[in-house]
Amino acid sequence: MKCFTFFHGELLEGIQTTLSHNNNRVIFLGMKGPRCHFDTIYLGSSDEKEDSIYPKIDKNGLINKAYPTTRDRMIKFNNGVTKKVKKVILKNAYDSQTKVLLRINTSTPSKIPINGRWQEKGGWPEELLKTNGFSKVDDGKWQRWCDDLVILDDQDVILITPAGSRRNERMIIRNELGELLVIPEVEYYKILKSHQKEMLTKIEKNEEKEAKTPENIETVSETDEVEKGKASQNAIVTEIHTEEGETIGA
Fold it and tell me: Is the pTM of this model over 0.85?
């Protein structure tokens, strides 16, 4: 599936990798520090035998296509304890018809003490990794930002609030058959409102049209008129004649 990154209020193609202390390509998410959460995304094996599953990295260190999976790894923590944890692994992938892999980093240069976050607004986005960090702003305050990895399928919609953003800076990202539409939240809801109004108008016109069709106009049969005591205009008149042919009644 295609890879994208939302960073500093913009949607960028690819996910950035960096070299670890072991000289391996990895992706670092989050931040180290108090109240922060940090994680590492590893890449599929680069051994010669498994080269086909190692994601392709361009000259800028970006991964543009990848398939996420998980693997158990033994991690040694600072307190000396070693635990088995599930780690996300990115492998090489072909184009997906609908899904994309999106890294959401809501940090910004803004100095307004508003936390950065994202939330689901439609569909079922799949959250793979959730990390965070903090940035110091004016007056000794802090703003929290997230750095998450998410899978978006067709028609999934999320709302992103960049750290320190105002209402008009909040962004909607919608997946339309593997292509991401990015639009300010205020504009998105204007479009939705206009679309809903248009659909209601169409429904009302269709209902009026159906009400005026011949099939929906009520008609009364002659039998019904007779049953109600009304004479039918097409009633048959029977004449009575004498033997000589003179009419004496009907």
Answer: no
